[in-house]
């Protein structure tokens, strides 16, 4: 089933409690997906890069070597970043396997991300000037508590609660997906893509790589490729309605926009609230009401609609 | 000893089942009218309170404040009564009802009034997809717009939509009538078996075996009567759509009779 949610504030400037709001929205849809929960949060833009990465999965066995292996691999990641010219400001240990690193860097992002992911067990969850992807197993409250997201202030966000159907219950299979190697772009998806393997082969031939076996990751990389060719987010999303088969509703975020696309069969739900102060959208209205505790006017976008809101 | 099936839930993935729950007794009762605030109550507690008032306290007019778009509210009400929801309902609201008159001041989510047998439901706001699925009787009046597949598998009754409707409206409709005052998406009446669809706005495309029908006096009388009953003003001009009856085999024989004939 899965549930998706998005929120973008009109008076952004980095001052809204986007972490707390997204937790409220996702927790109210826990019944749509209790397996894992993920966030793509946009904080205030910084001149530095912020990268979220993991060095193991929650499910990985904690053998006697585990702590040493993590410590060793963390050292390797930092060493490679420095060797590639990054000036590291801070490395924060979010959990025993998840890290947040801020650094200054001028150069090719793809090469940098590839170099980090070449470290055994490493997976880059997000990389950009404002985007931070946090995902882990469990419901929104447990993930938010683990990563201290209630204090995260920002401008807009998307999130996902997952009921695993076609790939494993692990961090790689959890949404959102970063649109590797496009900085500050992420996607959450509810549905199934039926031409997944065609697109995966096509994109891999173009030099893209995938972190998971999840069909949803295709959308992120597909949008990234379109945008790297000069398409706007909205144009890329419109193209996807014709080129991606299946039933889907998905949301995509960039540094200054949030968009949603609904397939031409309208088989996956989406409820939308457009107010003066914010736009909030989710698989169920109950999620919107979790952050707007008053009577509001909402509606379901029709089939084949693409909508994008700019900050 | 517990009765068969009672308290036997052994797996509750969503953590929402409340097999031991009892009506919270929070309503203020005044004669045959009652009001209660649903804020902070779970779906099950709200429905238990509603049923207590209607079936045990003899109340015939209930107002539920702050339903908060919770799912599955007001389902399975099988008595003549009046219920007002001051706010919005989530998915599967007012399903499987037989007799009540229900007014919702907000919107409804997917699959509202599924399998409704009789009564009247009015929704002041918008509705999600699959509204009035398998509706068997009664009137469902939607003042806003509705999502896709409204009236899927409709078997009777009337669905009135004052706003626009999404794709595949009237999909596999079997009987009953739909009055659609706004524009309608692609595939109107796709694979319908029978029934009548009236549309005042633009139709993006007709579905398989849905064809324009010939308007007659009975159509005018029906539409005018429904507009009058629900105080909807003067009806606009409608087009009529029916089943072309080319897609399936149609006769009046039961399967057993068909065997004898053939």
SSE string of chain A: EHEEHEEHEEHEEEHHHEEEEHE
Q: Biggest sheet of chain A, in brief?
A: 6 strands, antiparallel
Beta-strand share of residues of chain A: 25-35%
C-alpha geometry of chain B:
globular
The SSE string of chain B, one letter per element, is EEHEEEEEEEEEHEH
CATH class of the largest domain in chain A: Alpha Beta
Mean pLDDT of chain A: 93
The percentage of residues in β strands of chain B lies in 15-25%
Query: What helical percentage do the residues of chain B reach?
Result: 10-25%
CATH architecture type of the largest domain in chain A: 4-Layer Sandwich
Question: Greatest contact pair?
Answer: A-B, 21 and 32 residues
Radius of gyration of chain A: 18 Å
Report the end-to-end length of chain A measured between terminal Cα atoms.
Answer: 30 Å
In DSSP terms (H or I, runs of 4 or more residues), the helix count of chain B works out at: 3
Compute the number of helices of chain A.
Answer: 8
């Amino acid at each position: 089933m899965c549930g998706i949610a998005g929120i973008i504030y009109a008076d952004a400037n980095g001052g809204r409690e986007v972490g707390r709001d997204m937790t409220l929205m996702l927790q109210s849809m826990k019944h749509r997906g209790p397996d894992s929960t993920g966030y793509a949060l946009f904080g205030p833009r910084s001149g530095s890069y912020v990268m979220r990465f993991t060095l193991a999965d929650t499910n990985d066995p904690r053998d006697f070597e585990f702590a040493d292996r993590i410590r060793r691999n963390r050292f390797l990641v930092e060493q490679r970043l420095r060797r590639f010219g990054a000036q590291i400001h801070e490395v924060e240990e979010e959990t025993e396997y998840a890290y947040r690193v801020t650094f200054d860097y001028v150069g090719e992002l793809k090469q940098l991300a590839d170099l980090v992911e070449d470290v055994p067990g490493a997976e880059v969850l997000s990389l950009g000037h404002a985007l931070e992807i946090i995902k882990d197993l469990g419901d929104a409250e447990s993930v938010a508590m683990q990563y201290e997201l209630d204090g995260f202030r920002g401008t807009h966000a998307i999130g996902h609660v997952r009921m695993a159907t076609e790939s494993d219950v692990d961090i790689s299979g959890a949404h959102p997906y970063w649109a590797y190697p496009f900085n500050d772009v992420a996607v959450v998806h509810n549905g199934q893509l039926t031409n997944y393997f065609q697109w995966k082969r096509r994109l891999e031939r173009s030099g893209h790589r995938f972190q998971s076996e999840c069909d949803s990751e295709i959308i992120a990389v597909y949008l990234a490729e379109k945008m790297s060719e000069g398409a706007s987010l909205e144009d890329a999303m419109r193209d996807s309605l014709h080129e991606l088969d299946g039933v889907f509703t998905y949301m995509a975020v960039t540094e200054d926009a949030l968009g949603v696309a609904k397939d031409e069969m309208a088989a996956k739900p989406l409820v939308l609230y457009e107010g003066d102060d914010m736009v909030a959208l989710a698989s169920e209205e109950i999620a919107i009401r979790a952050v707007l505790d008053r009577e509001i006017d909402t509606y379901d976008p029709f089939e084949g609609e693409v909508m994008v809101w700019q900050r | 000893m517990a009765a068969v099936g009672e308290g036997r839930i052994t797996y509750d993935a969503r953590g929402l089942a409340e097999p031991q729950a009892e009506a919270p007794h929070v309503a203020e009762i005044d004669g045959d009218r009652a009001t209660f605030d649903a804020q902070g109550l779970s779906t099950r507690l709200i429905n238990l309170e509603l049923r207590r008032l209607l079936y045990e306290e003899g109340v015939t007019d209930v107002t539920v404040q702050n339903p908060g778009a919770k799912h599955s509210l007001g389902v399975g009400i099988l008595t003549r009564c009046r219920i007002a929801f001051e706010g919005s309902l989530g998915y599967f609201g007012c399903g499987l009802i037989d007799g009540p008159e229900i007014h919702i001041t907000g919107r409804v989510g997917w699959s509202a009034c599924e399998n409704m047998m009789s009564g009247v439901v009015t929704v002041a706001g918008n509705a999600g997809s699959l509204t009035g699925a398998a509706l068997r009787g009664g009137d469902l009046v939607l003042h806003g717009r509705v999502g896709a597949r409204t009236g899927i598998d409709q078997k009777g009754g009337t669905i009135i939509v004052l706003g626009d409707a999404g794709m595949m409206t009237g999909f596999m409709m079997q009987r009953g009538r739909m009055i659609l005052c706004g524009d309608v998406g692609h595939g109107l009446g796709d694979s319908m078996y029978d029934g009548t669809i009236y549309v005042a706005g633009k139709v993006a495309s007709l579905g398989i075996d849905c064809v324009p029908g010939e308007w007659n006096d009975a159509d005018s009388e029906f539409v005018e009567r429904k507009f009058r009953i629900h105080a909807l003003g003067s009806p606009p001009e409608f087009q009529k759509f029916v089943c072309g009856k080319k897609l399936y085999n149609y006769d009046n024989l039961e399967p057993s009779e068909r065997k004898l004939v053939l």
